[in-house]
Amino acid sequence: MDSTTIIAVASIVTAGLTIALGSIGPALGEGRAVATALSSLAQQPDAGSTITRTLFVGLAMIESIAIYCFVVSMILLFANPFWNHVIAQTAGK
Amino acid sequence: MRLSPDDIIFWRHGFLKLNGTIVFTWALMFVLAAGSKLVTRKLSTDLERSPWQNLLEIVVTGIEKQIVDVGLRNPQKYIGFLGTIFLFIALASLCTIIPGYEPPTGSLSTTAALALCVFVAVPFFGIEEQGLVGYLKSYTEPTVIMLPFNIISELSRTLALAVRLFGNMMSGTMIIAILLTITPFVFPIAMSALGLLTGMVQAYIFSILAGVYIAAATRGRKSKTEPKQSLTA
Prior knowledge:
The structure holds 2 protein chains of 2 kinds.
Chain A: H1 3-22, H2 24-43, H3 48-78, H4 81-92
Helix pairs in contact in A: 1-3, 1-4, 2-3
Chain B: E1 9-13, E2 16-19, H1 20-39, H2 51-70, H3 75-94, H4 108-137, H5 147-182, H6 187-218, H7 222-232
Antiparallel strand pairs in B: 1-2
Helix pairs in contact in B: 1-3, 2-3, 3-6, 4-5, 4-6, 5-6
């Protein structure tokens, strides 16, 4: 395998692994957060607006971890700096 | 595939180029500024008022209420900053229903600029509220050992603000673009409806987080001084 193939394979596999492994944690965290918010909503419906607002902010914070993984995998797939470097070198030859 | 509206280039002259991000940002700024100028041209205080004035009043009082809920006491002072950020991001994602438009918040340059505004505004409001020494002291709370971590968190949350908004907006347009190639007709509509919801939530999150950061910077020491006052009184 030449270096171009190695870079392509490594980028694609890493992009898949990034989004796959990176979404496990946020998914578990969001599930826990929503479950806790629902049970506290059932106990105290009066505090509904506060709980919902805090839940939304918290969910966005948790979800941003998954979004970081998504951004990294998108960069690996569509704007890969190593790939662009190799392509530029082979074009320059 | 296009990652961001930076790659749409309308006009180029030498090293100057006019890309989609700049054009759409200025269009949004024009719509916001001209719209609010037109609506506030003839305001009325009696019972008869135009529907547009009603709309703006609902928006402004709604934002004010949210700012108070975050913990900032006089919302009039902060609504200029937080409200503008909210309205800009909300309109940027709401306009995605217009064909040919791409949200400028889907470019990392725009979101980084917005996050840098928050990064500058937090110490600005903090120093204004509790003085330079008082604000700098808030970095050494609860102990001096926390000083480097407080500085790191200041930087990392700016990065997080920028990347969160960029990632959400970019993923919205990206998913629609991918779905258009797989299932062309119906499914992208559902995803763009979801994209509208995500855009609104992200606008809310961004401005609420900016408000929370400003609130933390402005009342840093009050929680400590208030019990003391009650003790002496």
